Every structure is written in structure tokens, then in C-alpha cells.
Amino acid sequence: MAGAVSLWRREAVFLTAMLASETGIVGMNTLFKAATSKGLNSYAFLGYSYLLGSLLLLPSHIFSNRSRSLPPLSFSILSKIGLLGLLGSMYVITGYIGVKYSNPTLASAISNITPALTFILAIIFRFFFLFSLIMEFFGQLIMEFCS
After folding, report:
1. What would the pLDDT profile of 64-88 be if each residue is shown by its tens digit?
2. Which positions fall inside the EamA domain (predicted)?
């Protein structure tokens, strides 16, 4: 019984985090549309949102436990971090510019299909072998529901 309650609480934490994330995305899209329709520059809004995110995440180092030593930062690791930062920023900038020309509901719907697009890209770039077991499981699950 105690194991089931523990599992339920762990799943509830993940569900709560997912709901908070989706609520934040929809809220930011709505705020962006309202702010840009009043005349705020889209890059200023992005700067403010990145500043707010940094200030909210800054105290997180207090709650993190680091009992192991980290590997040294090599040029390869730093370049990968920089590339991910650049691609992430470009993703957000192009997404918000798309919201400027459409509505926040469409942006939220498109953000929900991101996992499917990631899976399609994984198939295209031949990472399909990682997903073969998952596809087999879902195939069996669908066949079970159909029969």
C-alpha cells in the first residue's frame, strides 16, 4: 500500500509539472499577443521574459545537492551548450513572431505536436532503432484496443 501511494505521489508531481509548463506556455503566448498588439517590441518582450525566467531560476542552486564532482568543461561541451542556446533562442523568437501574425490558440496547438515532429525527425535521421521497442509496444496496445 505504501508503495502505491509513493508511486501515485511521484506521478502526481510529474503531472503537476507538465500542467504548470503547459499553462505557462499558453499564458506567455497570450501575454505576448496582448503586449505586441499594444505596441511592445517583440524582442523587448523576449528580453523581459528571459530576465524573469533567470530571476526565478537563480535561487534553484540552493535546493540542488551536488555531492559529486562534475567533469571539466571542454571546448566540445561549451560549443554544444552554445549551439543549444542559440537554437533554443531562435525557436522562441520564431515562435513568438508566428504568434504576432496569428493567434495564441494556434501556437499552443502547434506546440502540442512538437513530440510528433521530433519522432518524425528521429525516423528521418535514422534514430528509429531507439524507438522500435516503443513502436512495438504501441502497436500491441492499439491491437489490444481494436480487438
Report:
1. 776 677 778 899 999 999 999 999 8
2. 25-125
Cβ distance 63 to 137 under 8 Å?
no
- Find out whether 32 and 99 touch, Cβ atoms under 8 Å: yes
> How far is 110 from 98, CA to CA, in rounded Å?
11
CB 109 within 8 A of CB 26: no
* DSSP 8-class letter at 71: P
Q: How far apart are CA 120 and CA 135, in angstroms?
A: 13
Model's pTM, two decimal places?
A: 0.60
Would you list the domain boundaries of the chain? 1-55+78-112, 113-147
Cα separation, 21 vs 25, whole angstroms: 6
Please list the alpha-helical segments (H only) found in the chain: 2-37, 42-57, 60-63, 75-101, 104-112, 114-124, 128-146
Rounded Cα distance, 45 and 63, in Å: 29
Determine the angle formed by the axes of helices 2-37 and 42-57, rounding to 10 degrees: 150
Distance CA 40, CA 32 (A): 9
